[in-house]
Amino acid sequence: MLNSLLQRYLLLSVQTRRLAHFLFLLLSLTISQALFALLARSLFLDRVGPGSLPLLFTITPLVLIVVSTAFIGVVNRISHIRLFRWILFGSILFVGAIQVLITQQTSSTLPFFGLYILSNLLSVLLIKISFSTLFSDYFTALELKRYTAFLSLSANLGFLLANSLGSIIVQFIPPESLLLSIPFLYAIAIAQLVYLERDQKSIEINPPDPSQSSQGLIDSLQKFPRLAKQYPIIFYLAVSIFIVLLLRLLTEFLFSTVYTQQFPKTKDLTSFLGISSAIFSLVQLLLTSLVTTPLIQQLGISRANLIYPVTTLISFIGFLVNFGFPTAVFANLNHVAIYRSIADPLKSLNYSAVPPQARDTFRILSEGLFSPVGEMLGGLILLGLMSSMNYFPISFLGVILSLILVGVSIKTGKNYVQSVMKMLISGSVNLYQVRKGLTLPSDYQSEVQNLLSSRDHNSQILGLQLASYVQPPQQFLPEVNTLLTQADPQLRQAMVSFLRQLPKPIILDWVQQGLNSDNSMNKAVALELLIDQNQSIPETQLTTLLTDEQEEIRALTCVAVTAHQQSLYPQIQKTCQQLWQMELDCPIAQATIDVISHTGRQELIPILYQILPLASCEIKQQGFKALVNLASPQDIRLKELAASELTNTNPEVRAAALQVLGVIKDPQMLPYLATFLQDIDCRVRSRAAEAIAFYGEKGLSYVEECLLSERQEVVETAITAIGYIGTNRAEDILYEHLSLELQQVSRTLKWQLPDEHSSWKLFAIAIQDFQFRVIERVFYALSALGCHHTLEAMRVLRYSTNKRSRANAVETIASLRYRRFILPILPLLEQWADEPRSRVEITLNADWMKTTGYKLLLEALECKDRWIEIGAIMALATVPSLLIQTSDSLVQEVVQQVFPSTAPLSDINLYFMNRILLLKNISLFQKMSLDELLILNQEFVEEEFREGEVIISEGSIGTHLYIVSSGCVALLKSIAGTQQMIKQLSSGEYFGEYQLFAESPSRVGAIAVTDCQLLKLEKNRLLSLTYQRPDILIEICKQLSQIIEELLIDTNIPPHQ
């Protein structure tokens, strides 16, 4: 009931409702666990005392390891949502039992140990494991990434509410009594899980390999020494993780001790802990949103790594100087806010310096070994130091460990840069992936110089990219000047990008030197930078540059003087006009267009007007691309220029001109643009659709006419254009275009056929073919409306063998906002995603024909789809023999004369239909539509072979794919000088496909066992077909895989080896 109300009145999609379920569930769990942790911590400190924290720190990780290991062992054997409920129910019992023990006011401290350990254990089991696992049951990995921000907000809100309200309520209700609220909160979570299970459908998970979890840690540990030797940053990161855990335990022990002394009453301590936790969370959010990113960009990762070690060192020095409340508050602030907002993000960035192939190994070790061992060691150290009840040694140890962490962080920063450089040079990552926070110290000057001096083109470009990360970047100008002698366009572009990042005075100084240089490349780059910096050419150099022997120098000079209106001088104007009237060489025209495009200045557009009419097709494309970014609407001259190129024989030029006309938005051009929706070239049609979309709803009436075209490609282009327009009216037009077919799909879903009967088989295939074609059209329309991921979901549905992936794809599609398009085809999509279900068997007899079959055939004949009509007509051949059952010989004779075609389909003389059915049953072509098979059928050549006749000789070069239409064919292999049959093929099987792709002599021969008919498809036609339909290649790969597996089994080699 609630679900339907939400759907009707709040218009929430399935996906949104599912996300809301999990956000509220996480909110409930976070509130319960934050409140539980607050009460457990305050009661432990008050009743047991901080002196027992070391023992607690030692026991807790041991319990966590044992319970988590046992939990992981059963997590995939039981329904996740059911296991979640069991844990919550067990938690209610445990908390209730501990609460009873506490209220009995016994002198034992065990209940408080149990309470603290249980709060930590449930935080891991309920949130880190159970919630995360359950979330992955309902959402894909991509959706998890998309919704991370919402989950983080929900968790932070729960934490703030629990601590804030807890600090207030504890003033009126004792913490022991407030513990009763925890089972109540767990009961709410159980109710949420029950409602979730009823309202939402989970996705089944394929069972994992049981060996992976048990051997992962051991395998990772074995790989660690080799990885640490190759990439030392892995070793330093491991050491820092270990030390940070020790320091955090020492810090928590010290500030907890101070808090206990400061607040001797339980309610006061609980209230303070709640308020301080809420404040620290707010500080964390402020630091994360306002400080962290700019700080890392300013300092770089190497130096930013020192922030948390230094603040931790300050906190321990504070404990040495003054073991008091202010120091404890700062240490707690550093422990929570600074660690979570700065140290945690930096740890993730440091992970980017670990090679991709080693990251999983390192994560397993850090989470499964370093963290729990460090926590246990910290507890043991505290136990040893607490024998004297002196806090000075603990604080002093904290100072020593903090200094070690500072040193390790310095080494981590240095190795971070080394590791990143090694990965960049090897090509395992690109600069874009690791550029955040990257700064190169001065000692990397020589390495960058080596890259710039290298003869390798890619190394030179990488050197130019990295040069701006070393301060000061102008120190590399000598190497850059050397590279200028190389006339490589890509390298030149990288050099210009580097020079643009230099300080302006240095750029202008370099420009002046370049203009005075004898090197034409120096002059050209200097002019590019001069135009980019919006500087005019000195009058003393203007004449020299305009008369330079290099045409590129003269062209760039004319661009520069036009930008600063220096071309107003008659002589300069005349010189530039003469230059633009010439047909410029491609590189020169390209450089001119690039400079104009980069400046973004509209006053330079007239230069393009003069260059483009005489330019080559390639330059016209680049020029129009630049004009798209520079032009303004209603530019008459530009409209005339673009319109004049619409008759160009080069389709790419026509497409580029259409793109410009879209920007101009001249309503008078709309009818003309609409004609290009029917262009023979797909690129032109696509650009025409984009151009018309710029005009908004004004273009709908012109596009709508193309939906009636007999050419499918024109209809698809019209759908694309309507989707680009994307208004409500555009959506209505698309839905109206598809509505009749969607209604017909709904009707076909109700049809149950006796498809095992030969005369009805084509009818069943025609229905499936129609349904699939409609689904393809719906997906195409949705993609045009902006739901691009629907096409990927469609591919997953068709080709994935993973049930979970297929179910994920259906859920993604079902969550789209265009639900009226999806609902009619949703049952079909769910059938594809699910395992094949057993169908109701229908016996073809007179009773079924009278009650159902005849009506069904009449409905089918009214359908406008030709294949369904043909299938229904073929099925009608069974009607006379079923409905007219008589023993009277005269009646039988009349029936035979009136209904001569009462024979089975295989006997009816519809040759082309038999051929299409044959092709449809072949695995290579099963995913092709009947229309496609009708065309493909024309490509096959029929050939007859007599019994014993050789079809292919072993060792011959394959030229055709062969399909057995009738008869039997034997595949032969010469073994030890004798011909042995390795396989016999019958109607519907094929051979010869592997040799077409391998381009090697055939390893087998083929001979006709009986008189047979074969269909031959020529090699080039098959190869062309695989480009259009990749599923053919997928099927061939499956067949090869099966053959290889059979061969391995024959040789006693396990397939996985």
Automatic annotation (TrEMBL):
Membrane-spanning ranges: 21-43, 55-76, 83-102, 114-135, 147-172, 178-196, 233-251, 271-293, 305-325, 369-386, 391-410
Gene Ontology, cellular component aspect: cytosol; phycobilisome
Top-level taxon: Bacteria
Domain spans labelled Cyclic nucleotide-binding: 924-1025
Pfam families linked to this entry: cNMP_binding, HEAT_2
One Gene Ontology molecular-function label: DNA-binding transcription factor activity
Coiled coil residues, start to end: none
PROSITE patterns documented for this protein: CNMP_BINDING_3
Keyword entries, A-Z: Antenna complex, Membrane, Phycobilisome, Transmembrane, Transmembrane helix
Name of the molecule in the record: Cyclic nucleotide-binding domain-containing protein
Gene3D superfamilies on file: Jelly Rolls, Leucine-rich Repeat Variant, MFS general substrate transporter like domains
